[in-house]
Amino acid sequence: MGKSAITGQCQFKGVIMRSNFAFGLAKIAAAAVMLMTAAGLATGPAAAQQTDVSKYVIGPGDMLQVSVWHNPELSTSVPVRPDGRISTPLVTDVVAAGKTSEQLGHDIEAQLKKYVADPIVTVMVSNFVGPYNQQVRIVGEASTPKALPYLAHMTVLDAMIAAGGLTPYASGNRAKLVRRIGGKETETTLRISDLLKDGDLSANTELQPGDIIIIPQSFF
To answer: What DSSP string describes the chain?
Structure first.
């Protein structure tokens, strides 16, 4: 077989993979609508009780907006350094990583009390990265391998959409989910091809902070 024929086959396979990915997402959306219609959508106080109350933990690389009420000269936008610390006006060094925005705000207030009467500090995270042990990593035959900040109730589908799906050479149903439990690494097989191409929601596994998705290459 000539080189041009092989190249043409690879391009054709890539087009089919992208088409299958889009078709699979459409099937997933339809299945999700059917499930919600059958189960009904919870509203009112009952739904409020089910809302996730977990708070985001700041990590290195996050961009923070620090606002000091009635003291704009002390307000600033600052990145969290690789060592997990930040510096703001009058506060030369404070640990930010591993804390919520509220906790960090109180810590900055405590240091500002030396210079400002009753300071009120608000910290907002404007760009999310998250601590390393809270990230979900996708490696191997994903279109865009990357590390993602973990979000509550994140699933394999969410991660794969963020990674742009599979490459034409991926063996999605041989993918592995590596998770640390009790200090030990465990492996679980994922059926990513069934999820993305066929819309099989039973293959949509919920993720946890620190999970690693490894997607191998298919055998030819």
So the answer is: --HHHHHHHHHHHHHHHHHHHHHHHHHHHHHHHHHHHHH----THHHHHHS----PPP-TT-EEEEEETT-GGG-EEEEPPTTSEEEETTEEEEE-TTS-HHHHHHHHHHHHTTTSSS--EEEEEEE----GGGEEEEEESBSS-EEEE--TT-BHHHHHHHTTSB-TTB-GGGEEEEEEETTEEEEEEE-HHHHHHH--GGG-PBP-TT-EEEEPBPP-
Q: What is the pTM of this model?
A: 0.60
Q: What structural domains does the chain harbor?
A: 3-48+133-215 (3.10.560.10), 63-127 (3.30.1950.10)
pLDDT tens per residue across all 220 residues of the chain:
554 444 444 444 444 455 555 555 555 555 554 444 444 434 343 333 333 334 788 989 899 999 999 999 999 999 999 999 999 999 999 999 999 999 999 999 999 999 999 999 999 999 888 888 889 999 999 999 999 988 889 999 999 999 999 999 999 999 999 999 998 999 999 999 999 999 999 999 999 999 999 999 997 6
